[in-house]
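Two entries, shown back to back:
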Amino acid sequence: MIRNNKRWANEGLQGCPMALYSMRVTQIKRSANQSPVAAAAYRSGEKLRDDRQGITHDYTRKGGVVHKEIMLPDNAPAWARRLDREALWNMADRRERRKDSQTAREVRIMIPRELDPAQRISLVRDFVKRNFVDLGMIADVCWHNKTASDGLDQPHAHVMLTMRPMDADGFGNKVRHDWVPDPTGRTHADGRTVMVESNPDSWNSIAYYDRVRESWEVTANAALERAGSAERIDRRSYLERGLSRLPEPALRLAFHLKELRGVMQERFGQFQYARFYRGVEERAKEALGRFEQAPFAVEAAQTFQRFHDWFDRQIERLAPAREEPQREPPAPERER
């Protein structure tokens, strides 16, 4: 994610500088040939043995790991307190029987660079404890820091979470939910029944992770305020905040391939932009659907028009220049 420390949130409307919000939740999946032991070794910069695959993953030469720790619930059983990182993730992997099992969950969080290193560790530790560990999960947290594309710090944390609660002898059954008809009888505009989660406290619940995203915004902003910084993060999209501009695409691989030349560089850039703006369009449609149900439909329509106009200008600016067709010179007149 591109980070500009001098960016302003509302084009000067609110007069408050805005840090960037980034949280990504993914799963470690066997179906994608992923291993929780390999993931833990990479994020911690350690050498760990994967018992199931019979492979030793060695990332001891990896840099950028600032701090790492395993966080346990206060009521964790004795067997859990004896686990180190290698034993923890091998045990979690052995508990899963299916070839397409999800063996761990990862939450990647961007930390405000305005905080000093000690404040960054304290912030993430507090957030992880309240939102995950206190619910019964074991959290393997690694704080990283690397240089961003603007030459400044890019602090972030990788939080690997167990998928099953603990019992006296090991990991128990997963906390699941089903999709059931809304008890209030709500229906969509086309008559279809609105489906809701049977257990909003499920560890896989969309509603639960919406609350987690909100909690990170509140917790990080409180830490920024305590640190005396005027910057704040906001989990809402530009469209939801009424801003008529597009977010910047994350460069990721493109940043490391910036030395490419010619057609290869141009085609790769076009691919990155096309994929990014497809995602923007999908999120815009979802946000506009929520606006249509709100009491401020007029303001929503104006916001959409600003977004639509800006989108057209952005696409026009990114489109490759078109060469005007060359006209043939007029034929010379015959001499009489």
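entry 2 starts here
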Amino acid sequence: MTGGTAAGAAVRRAAVLGSPVAHSLSPVLHRAAYAAMGLDSWTYDAIECREDGLAALLDGLGPEWAGLSLTMPLKRVALDLADSVSDLAVAVGGANTIVLRDGRRHADNTDVHGIETALTEAGLKAPQSALVLGGGATAASALAALARLGTAEAVLAARSPERAAGAAEVGERFGLAVRVVALDRVTAHLPAELVVSTLPGRAADAFAGPVAASGAALFDVVYAPWPTVLAAAVERAGGTVVGGFAMLLHQAVRQVALMTGREDVPVAAMRAAGEAELARRA
């Protein structure tokens, strides 16, 4: 499944599914990869799809389909609709990737890889303590990534600690000691070496001052608009800041490798295309 540039090369299709999905940066990243890899017969689209529509959509895909990227709210239901699931996706409790090959659907998770690589790239290779804001699927992937990087313990701060129990269990499954607290108790758990915000939009604005003053490094999963109030505050205080674009980029790099079967994925070309698109939207 490597595609090609020869005349008459078979068309290969891929897409990102989710709801809402029109804002997704994935088409820009994947198309940039195909162009740089000479995969002229490959296409990548964005398709609106809700949980109750995923099964029918999958059943209707033809042999030209190579893979799918999945965003919310499809990451959990995808596990039940795949023929095989990677150990990582099972452990995290969600798949953001379906590779279609030989009539079978293989579900995988590249979010954890994206977070690991983004943090490592920024020099945050093994934070000893972490404070994670939010208790959803992205928080679960962040806890898994931190555990794989060697972090020993983390505090998980969520609006509803009861709902965050699933994410905490994921971290513990990877050997991380996780303590769940209410989000309004964040300041009591600073300083930490690394703060990870998986909160949407401006939900983390209220914590900008305390986090910046604590001297913690920050990984904020938001990538637009950027910088967030939280990221700007930490940056002004001289702290290390990693934005959500780095995670998005590296999870997409891994998806391209899985879907094409090739490892020569052009990270620089994908990064440049994504940054240019974000600048255009801003």
